[in-house]
Amino acid sequence: MRIRIVDAFTDRPFAGNPAGVLLLDAFPDDAWLQSVAVEVNHAETAFAHPLPAGGEADWALRWFTPGTEVDMCGHATLATAHVLHSTGTTRGPVRFATRSGVLVATPHDDGSLTLDFPTAPLTEEPAPAGLAEALGAQPLSVHDTGRAIGDLLVELPDEKTVRALAPDLKAVSAASERGIIATAPAEDPSQGYDFVSRCFFPGIGIDEDPVTGSAHTALAPFWARRLGRTRLTGLQASARTGLVRVELRGGRTLLTGSAVTVIEGELTA
Predict the structure, then answer these.
(1) Is 69 part of the annotated catalytic residue set?
(2) How many angstroms separate the CA atoms of 16 and 6, rounded?
(3) What are the structural domains of the chain?
(4) Which superkingdom is the protein from (predicted)?
């Protein structure tokens, strides 16, 4: 069967967030899916198979890290939609049945895709004991993103602080269910982005995620309130970097980005 590695939330190879993508006839047993994700060894590997016509979704979609199955993944959804459209397997919007409900990916003439995801709820709360020490930076505010994501969104003073983070990952894993989204306003919005972020998820085996679509379902409402706009662009300032264009629509958040297939081969196991 064909396996592809796709760089998501970027328009060039070797940037953005890489994801494995396999299109199947049906889902094999979970142990095999997990073994493939371990072998691929990227933040997520996506597995999808077509569903019968006439239902609420067109494809079933699941995501696995090297350590576990996850409830939501933006970049691997974008990568899967990219494969479906770039190979001519599907045209127009595609509906995915997932553990987070039906998620829709809509293609555009420029090759980008827009994902329609649920907006994460945000609840401000006191910083957990030891959080500043774990991050190596003093938070301005801390917000729980709810069970759908399971992260803490941590507001930091400025872009330089976010870029300079070198957290204690063991301590970070004790601070939240999945990990930490660290964010700050862009130092110079004329550079094409409104805010920056970095995401650390040691709790699910990902020390730092290069570009995190699901995190932007929390970043969108957070920065929309502060900046007074519902359309924004986020730069995830990992070593690979990536841009996510967001649009807040109440209970839904639209995530737009591009993707590039960098590896295609045959899985023989």
Answers:
(1) no
(2) 9
(3) 2-118+255-266 (3.10.310.10), 123-250 (3.10.310.10)
(4) Bacteria
Cα separation, 202 vs 225, in Å, equals 29
Q: What is the full DSSP assignment across 157-191?
A: S-HHHHHT----HHHHHTTSSSEEEEEEE-S-GGG
Single out the catalytic residue among 39, 44, 177, 208.
Answer: 44
**Residue matched to tokens 């970097």:** 241
Task: Retrieve residue 206's tokens.
Answer: 């990902």
Whole-number Å distance between alpha carbons of 153 and 199: 9
Give the Cα separation of 201 and 179 in Å (integer): 4
**Distance between terminal CA atoms of the chain?**
9
| Cβ atoms of residues 14 and 7 within 8 Å | yes
pLDDT one digit per residue (tens) for the chain, 269 residues: 999 999 999 999 999 999 999 999 999 999 999 999 999 999 999 999 999 999 999 999 999 999 999 999 999 999 999 999 999 999 999 999 999 999 999 999 999 999 999 999 999 999 998 999 999 999 999 999 988 788 999 999 999 999 999 999 988 888 777 789 999 999 999 999 999 999 999 888 889 999 999 999 999 999 999 999 999 999 999 999 999 999 999 899 999 999 999 999 999 98
* CA–CA gap between residue 129 and residue 113 (Å, rounded): 40
